[in-house]
């Protein structure tokens, strides 16, 4: 069975790259450019993984994750960020993300 991933990324270039990279796994990818769209998708469909940008125009990735957890959703989540700061990564993990992926992401990874 092909995993179903929700990708949330506000930058169109990064979103297109991540959509192509995750689809190549193979995986089915639904994408959103902001937290509001992500909440609608997450509440409408079951996902095997969420991949959230740490900084969105209408919320942080941690705020989005907290909102979805409050709604009772338990999908595993990874954050992606351009931050190389270990404290920022620790804060994302403390917010409930299983891991943090640092951008730019190498297509070969």
What do the pLDDT scores average to?
A: 92
Q: Classify the beta-strand content into a percent band.
A: 15-25%
What structural class should be given to the helix and strand makeup? alpha/beta
User: Secondary-structure element sequence?
Assistant: EHEHEHEHE
- By DSSP, the count of extended strands is 5
**End-to-end distance:** 22 Å
The coarse silhouette is globular
Radius of gyration: 13 Å
How are the strands ordered across the major sheet?
2-1-3-4-5
Number of helices: 4
**Poorly predicted ranges:** none
Helix percent reads 25-40%
Main β-sheet, in a few words? 5 strands, parallel
Explain this structure.
With 109 residues, this protein is an alpha/beta fold. The chain has helices at residues 12-23, 35-44, 61-70, 86-94; strands at 4-8, 28-32, 49-53, 77-81, 99-102. It contains 4 helices and 5 strands. It has a 5-stranded parallel sheet, with helices on both faces.
Can you summarize this structure?
This protein has 109 residues and is an alpha/beta fold. It has helices at residues 12-23, 35-44, 61-70, 86-94; strands spanning 4-8, 28-32, 49-53, 77-81, 99-102. Helix 1 links the parallel strand 1 (4-8) and strand 2 (28-32).
List keywords for this structure.
single chain; five-stranded parallel beta sheet; 5 strands
What's the layout of helices and strands?
Blueprint (H helix, E strand, L loop, with lengths): L3 E5 L3 H12 L4 E5 L2 H10 L4 E5 L7 H10 L6 E5 L4 H9 L4 E4 L7
Parallel strand pairs: 1-2, 1-3, 3-4, 4-5
